[in-house]
């Protein structure tokens, strides 16, 4: 799979035309009397902090920068596929011109995409690959590579500790309704199969940290506390749940555990040694690229994509961004350098000494 993205920047293209007029759908363009374009953004849930803290504001800000008079219609489905269906159908009824859809259940939204196609409304699959139908663009990260990075990080940590063959690992994957989860799992198994003993493996509904905690508790009970030497967690929220379970079980030294999304709490846990690593996804790039494409589509343009991804039905034009594996020694030159978090956000009183050790001030 193509890891990077080689697109020609769209700013020059997007600067050539102007868009609509205000913040509400159906308003009129003050210059030519046409309705202002409405771009509808649908995000899947809010338990993962990235969506409300980063994806939404970054997307909205980029649309505003490129097309001050375009409208953004925003909805969060709270991990409810039926609710998201209602939101999308309402947006179509309200006259949305572009759909940017991060699906709760990416395998079940083809009928919604088909409704949009019948109305000649372009669709961008955001972060999660929608299956069963063709559409305009897919913008995400190289998800198999994410899983490979997580698996390699866990393998390296176990080797460094000398515990690779001393016990079993627990694998905590994401929701089966999210095709990205299957990619993360595939990538992790690519690296770990034949090299570690997997004691327990879970698919976690809704990517729920609470459910991940319960799964970890079950694994500890089944395997025995001293027999768990590592945890492959597909994201930071679930890593937090697994860590809570291990603390409750009385671990003095936590085994290495992976994560993803560079959540603030996870970055702090990495600095203090509770979590081994996270996958840093440059959400700014993902959100802004999607906004650029949405504005271009609203203007009747269709920029070329650098690659395609087959979703089982069609080859979808795709922009796939590179993930970055981050351990404590890399936080300063990635997460902080990019402005994802300020040092002051990370280095609270409890983490101050760890920050100083990592050169973050």
- Indicate the low-confidence ranges by residue numbers: 1-31
Give the helix/strand class: alpha/beta
Number of domains: 2
Q: In the CATH scheme, what's the topology name of the largest domain?
A: Rossmann fold
Overview in brief:
40% of the residues lie in helices and 17% in strands.
How would you describe what is shown here?
Pfam families: Peripla_BP_4. The protein is α/β, with parallel strands linked by helices. The chain folds into 2 domains: about 10-140 and about 280-320, Response regulator (Rossmann fold), CATH 3.40.50; about 145-280 and about 325-355, 3-Layer(aba) Sandwich (Rossmann fold), CATH 3.40.50.2300. It has 13 helices and 12 strands. The chain has helices at about 10-15, 50-65, 80-95, 110-120, 145-160, 180-190, 210-225, 235-250, 265-270, 285-300, 330-335, 345, 350-355; strands at about 40-45, 70-75, 100, 125, 135-140, 170-175, 200-205, 230-235, 280, 305-310, 315-320, 325. The strands form 3 sheets. The chain has a 7-stranded mixed beta sheet with strand order 2-1-3-4-5-11-10, with helices on both faces. Strand 1 (about 40-45), helix 2 and strand 2 form a beta-alpha-beta unit. Helix 2 (about 50-65) packs across helix 10, helix 5 packs parallel to helix 6 (about 180-190) and helix 7 crosses helix 8 (about 235-250). The protein is globular.
Key attributes of the depicted protein:
alpha/beta; Rossmann fold; 2 domains; 12 strands; globular; Peripla_BP_I; D-xylose transport system substrate-binding protein; signal
């Amino acid at each position: 799979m193509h890891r990077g993205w080689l697109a020609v920047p769209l700013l020059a293209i997007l600067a050539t035309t102007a868009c609509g007029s205000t913040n509400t759908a159906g308003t009129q363009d003050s210059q030519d009397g046409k309705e202002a374009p409405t771009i509808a953004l649908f995000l899947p849930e809010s338990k993962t902090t990235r969506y409300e803290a980063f994806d939404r504001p970054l997307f909205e800000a980029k649309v505003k920068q490129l097309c001050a008079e375009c409208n953004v219609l925003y909805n969060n489905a709270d991990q409810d596929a039926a609710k998201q269906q209602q939101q999308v159908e309402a947006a179509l009824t309200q006259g949305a011109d572009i759909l940017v859809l991060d699906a709760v259940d990416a395998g079940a939204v083809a009928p919604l995409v088909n409704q949009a196609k019948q109305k000649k409304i372009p669709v961008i699959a955001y972060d999660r690959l929608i299956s069963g139908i063709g559409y305009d663009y897919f913008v995400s990260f190289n998800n198999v590579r994410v899983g490979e990075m997580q698996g390699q990080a866990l393998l390296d940590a176990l080797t460094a500790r000398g515990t690779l063959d001393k016990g079993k690992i627990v694998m905590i994957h994401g929701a089966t309704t999210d095709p990205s989860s299957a990619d993360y799992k595939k990538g992790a198994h690519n690296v770990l199969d034949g090299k570690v003993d997997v004691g327990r493996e879970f698919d976690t509904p809704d990517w729920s940290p609470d459910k991940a905690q319960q799964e970890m508790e079950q694994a500890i009970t089944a395997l025995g506390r001293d027999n768990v030497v590592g945890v492959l967690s597909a994201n930071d929220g679930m890593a937090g749940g697994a860590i809570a379970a291990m603390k409750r079980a009385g671990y003095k030294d936590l085994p290495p555990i992976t994560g993803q999304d560079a959540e603030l709490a996870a970055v702090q846990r990495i600095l203090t040694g509770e979590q081994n690593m996270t996958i840093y996804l440059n959400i700014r790039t993902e959100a802004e690229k999607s906004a650029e494409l949405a504005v271009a589509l609203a203007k009747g343009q269709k920029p070329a994509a650098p690659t395609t991804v087959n979703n089982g039905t069609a080859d979808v034009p795709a922009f796939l961004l590179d993930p970055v594996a981050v351990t404590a020694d890399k936080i300063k030159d990635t997460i902080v350098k990019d402005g994802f978090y300020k040092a002051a956000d990370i280095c609270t009183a409890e983490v101050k000494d760890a920050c100083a050790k990592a050169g973050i001030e």
